[in-house]
Amino acid sequence: MGSTSAENHTGVGRRDLIKRSAALGLISVPAMGFLSACASGGGSGQDKAEAGKKTEKNPLGVNDTAQMEFVLFDGGFGKEYAEDAVKVYERDFPKTKVKFSATQKIQSTLQPRFNQGTPPDLIDNSGAEQMDMGVLVGKNQLADLTPLLDAPSYDDPAKKVRDTLRPGIVEMGQFDGKPVWILYYAYTVYGVWYSQKALDSLDERYPETWDEMLKVCEKAKKKGMAGWTYAGKYPYYLPFSLYPMIGKVGGREVLDAIDNLEPNAWKHPAVKACFEAYYELYRKGYVLKGTPGLDHIQSQTAWAKGKALFLPNGSWVENESANVIPQDFDLAVSAPTGIDGSDKMPFGTIWASGGEPFVVPAKAKNAEGGMEQLRIMLGEASSKNFTAKVKSLTAYNGGTSGIDLTPGLKSGVAALEKAGSNVVNPRLQDWYVQLQKEKIGVSGIGEMMAGRLTPAEAVKKIQGFADEAAKDTSVKHYKHQ
């Protein structure tokens, strides 16, 4: 969800992720509205720009006089990194002009243009008004980005773009088969964020088992600090730590079954154990009072001010909360706490994946231009610029050398190193946006953490939502390959 925060997320994208990510408004545009609109196939469309000549410096054959339009989600990552990349595009193609804009209202701004067949050439499809990825792919609204991935990288003609990306980025953009519909630009680390200074003041280390978590929260409570807070108005932030915990306890196959909408997937003992653990935080009074009424900014601000110790979030939080995090906060992130030594995966198992999903519409006037802008952004210079300015990694596998890493970013890199191969990547937030956010997140997990559902009731309700989605023939379904 992310900048993909309440949004993606989406992550990832961003968030999420998925995520991931992001100054957001309430979810106000029904996903079904976009579904039915896309189903109509759009209007008459627009004439495609004439292709340019392919050369070593122009491997995608961009028309060097055609305008390129780029619409960015204006969230936690801001827009300066994209504006800088646009300047590179205009330097490389001096006869052209990029029409650049940024908005938080992606769906309400762009849905009418998809309907009319006149979408922009490149879109950062993130935020609370993120367009449903599953719908976009299922209704053939997106261009296949394989030509971009097979093009020479911006820095090294001997390397294809795909060979410069972090593991899993290409696969995340695939829904079924070989086409790649989405390029997740940010690389988001999801987990439990905290102040190392605050933890040290309790004379505690980050808890690895749930008994240890409850002990730390009790200590914090005695000192007038809540154990946890979260974006109560957007409780689909809770899965940023809850889902990888489920994977840690029960194994990757539990998360895969959930993503695949398999019958009774939510009734797995690992889900039950993790739901009961989180519910215990509510029951014992370890959640900051009033949290269900807080949005992501309010909860992050309360946490930054020391009112709560732990916050489930994505790595965009360091940039998004930069104006409220104290200088000596010593920001850190950890993989989620497990139940005990019987967990299937080791402590350190974390959710990390691509966030900030960029797409090129199938009916874009200048698709080659949109892909070229992404090729520039996936170069080392643009990647370093993004990391330095917004405190987040990119899909480019590198781009941190020579940069003085901020505390949160440094901690995120360390968490990835600790995880090694124990990285999970739940796909609900990009396969089934409405199911994940509004139903599972708000109506299920959110209601449980507000004390209005027991864990058993929440599991039953969420399994019902998943079963409905599995039977809905108007929705394209996806499965782990």
TrEMBL record:
Annotated keywords: Signal, Transport
Keyword Signal: yes
Cellular localisation: Cell envelope
Primary site of residence: other
Coiled coil: none
InterPro entries attached to this UniProt entry: Bact_solute-bd_prot1 (IPR050490), Chitin_NgcE (IPR022386), SBP (IPR006059), TAT_signal (IPR006311)
Transport in keyword set: yes
One of the Pfam families matching this protein, by short name: SBP_bac_1
Gene3D superfamilies: Periplasmic binding protein-like II
Annotated NCBIfam families: chitin_NgcE
Record family assignment: Belongs to the bacterial solute-binding protein 1 family.
Official protein name in the record: N-acetylglucosamine/diacetylchitobiose ABC transporter substrate-binding protein
Organism in which the protein naturally occurs: Streptomyces kebangsaanensis
